[in-house]
Sequence to fold (710 residues):
Amino acid sequence: MELYPPSPTSSSSPRSPSPHQQQPSSPPRIRRLEASVVNRIAAGEVIQRPSAAVKELVENSLDAASTSVSVSVKDGGLKLLLVSDDGHGIRYEDLPILCERHTTSKLSTYEDLQTIKSMGFRGEALASMTYVGHVTVTTITEGQLHGYRVSYRDGVMEHEPKPCAAVKGTQIMVENLFYNMAARRKTLQNCNDDYPKIVDLISRFSVHHMNVNFSCRKYGSNRADVHTVGGTSRLDTIRTVYGASVARDLMEISVSDDNPARSIFKMEGFISNSNYVAKKTTMILFINDRLVDCTALKRAVELVYSATLPKASKPFIYMSINLPSEHVDVNIHPTKREVSLLDQDSLIDTIQNAVEAKLMSSNRTQLQKVPVNQMVRTDSRNPFGRLHSYWKDEAQSSKQEKKSDLVSMRSVVVARRNWKENTDFTSIDQLLREIDSNVHRGLLDIVKDCTYVGLADEVFALLQYNTYLYLVNVVNVSKELMYQQVLCRFSKFNAIQLSEPAPLRDLLLMALKDEELETRGDETETDDDLKEKIAQMNIELLKEKEDMLEDYFGIKMEDGCLIRLPVILDQYVPDMDRIPEFLLSLANDIDWDDERECFQTISAVLANFYAIHPPILPNPSGDGIRFYKKNREEAGLDSEILAEKSVEEEVDEELVAEAETAWSQREWNIQHVLFPSMRLFLKPPKCMATDGTFVQVASLEKLYRVFERC
Fold:
């Protein structure tokens, strides 16, 4: 290569040479970084965002054998992360080194990684959090009389552990996350950006760890966005977390391989069928109980769906893969999000073939052409089969419907009780078995897959099932649903706290006011005196039974007042105008002597109170408005004079507004609480097929023949 000398022009240029062209006089020195700088850099890699911190804390809770994990989040996790569990806790003597880097109880030698079963093992997560946030730990171990609370910063305790009151397990609070990393905080500008990621994370954990109670909520909120009850089946957990519309379109799948020449593994899970429609793939993957990502497996499954289904819809996938520990390398990613598998290609091929076979077998029935007279356009996920979609206020109602459907469906299945959970009372078991043995299978199919259409009148609602249209008696159905739910939730009720204690005497006198009472004994007693005596007798009886009513049915009375009522259906509060009637029935209609009859009659009284009756105020729409017109005679005019003078009667606007609110709330409860709960929980008895509760009013096939003649 020939080198050319620089020209005079370039050498005389006034511009300074660029830094890249300058030759340093000596190489830069290599310095040992301060420990605080090293730890902060490492912390930024391990705790990339609030959801990463939650994942580490939840995995620690699961490693501690917790059966309940609760997560609270404020400002997307930047302001506050609070993770509580009921695990085995942390020893007092371990608290000084708890948040030092590379301190762990999961392993002691490198060889332990070959058989590691815990999710955490490096001892970096808690230490990293103390370098980018303010960490406070409260813990108690079994047998201790009190717990300890201690705060950490930069890996060390800020003070000695302080004794404190504590519940079983550990609570870790992380405040002001990334307070010392301005650039990181700027990348998380929207304070709520990470909350959906945290909800998604807890949802995935709850599906796999179905024996653990999980909850996730915004700090200070009474409603949990994720709430699962341990002990239910995996499909029920998916239904609780992701909704009935997802669960009903899932198929169970399993495959295994024990050939050492290829791969040794066992996979179990659920995949969506051809009816499932989504714009984005949801893949929940656990390998040896560790939540991980596997891009290659995800792409392989998506390829099967795109090739098999004409709509190329994105699938929902849950897979739990178990392999020998020595076939998995868990130490390849800073956040343990990925793992390396032995014979990964062979494993993916086997799973891909199993998914394809399952999907093809389920898709054969979908390929059959449906006769035009049997086509059904509406389903429970589509609002355009409901009467609301044809109202003038369509834009507003569809917006509210979309929001309320998402929120209420999740709330309806929140804290769902296990129907098969054993109780200590054989009488409750007998009553539940009676319900199971008396189920009408045809009505059960209708209830499980029906579509709400709208209200027909004050008592009946319209529902569609396949090509049939039915009238359903809302009062009867809601009463039976409430009765069954009372028995299923026996002794495990959440509470509705009354804003103010309600005096039993006043409520009972209200209920007795319109009843006809026969005078007994002293003929000089007035009706008021007799009512007062009856009310007092009822109060004394309820006081005797108040412990049992609170323990078994969530009805709390204290000092002659009603304090709390039970939650029978989440997101639903009964009509409080019916409390007087409920208390009178509770005092007079219960067989207190026989346990089975006692529980059954109390359940029936509660069911009648919680049933969705028409409001006490008449419906102001249509002819009902006449009940709200002020009395003509009070104005000193008769109807003829009013007619001649074309004087319009005044309407009590305040009362009309109250009535409209009550009737609107009832319809909302029917559509967004009763029908979703009915699809999930109701076991319709055989009598409902003949007593007019369900009445078929139309059949698409028959209507089609009629229209063909036109």
Remarks:
- The radius of gyration is 33 Å.
- The chain has a mean pLDDT of 79.
- The longest strand covers residues 250-259.
- Residues 220 and 467 are 46 Å apart (CA to CA).
